[in-house]
Request: fold
Amino acid sequence: MSFPENRRRLLGAAGALAVLGLAGCAGPGVLIRDTPPAGLPRKVELSATPFYPREDDHCGPAALAMALGASGFALDPEALAGLVFLPGRQGSLQIEMLAGARRAGALAVEIPGTQEALMRETAAGHPVVVLLNLGLSWAPSWHYAVVIGYDLDEAAFLLRSGPMERQVLPFRTFDATWARSERWAFVALPAGQLAATASEAQTTRALVAFEKAAPPASAVRAYQTGLTRWPDAVTLALGLGNSLYKAGDLRGAEAAFREAARRHDSAAAWNNLASVLLELNRLAEARDAATRAVALGGPTLNAARETLRQVEAGR
Reply:
């Protein structure tokens, strides 16, 4: 279902991201052989993770194909190379890896840069794409690999890496090479799953980016899943309403925005509720919602005034 262009004035969830302070939370690596995190098995190996051996500079597409394949997205490295490989750089940038996962239909979520996070993600069944520097700080040799598990007794991580289907890399060696990328890592998941270790801020950033590339129905499912973990997240609530609107579900969008407005008294939520009520030709309710959005003011004030103008005009 499409809507008149002059009525598409819903305020996006991305506008609320600044409130969350979305700085990365990659912290210093901690060698945890002697003090393993509670609640984890001694050994995890996701042996069903696909393997695509590479010895050239296409380690990015290969690593992404392995992570996607483990989540049910069957794409080979050649199909992904056009999405993530930059010939001029002879490799793949981190931002391209995340965008490539989203274009393939997956939710790409950066996770905390700790060994514990790697363990908890793989224990949850999520292979983790990591960026390593196999060279030196002044002569880098960047390489993407996929962590598929760990062995606390061997004090090592298990990886799919380059031509090696099962690389056993000691914690200390792994951390030294991973630290040179500021311990960057992400998981690629279906829309109905969440990363085991990502914070609300990391997950919100991933969901907002996913919404831009995903079919509206997938975005709806992703936001609904996020709200099960963080029910008080206003940005996720706005994203859910916007995705329902894009899917043509006006009644669902109304309910989502009304709940967000009730729970958070958010100007953006009131404005979006007014816009949907205007679409439904419920002018009195739309006027009340738009008036509340104007009264709250803030960065959405101009948008709210425009919505109120449209309501008063009966458009």
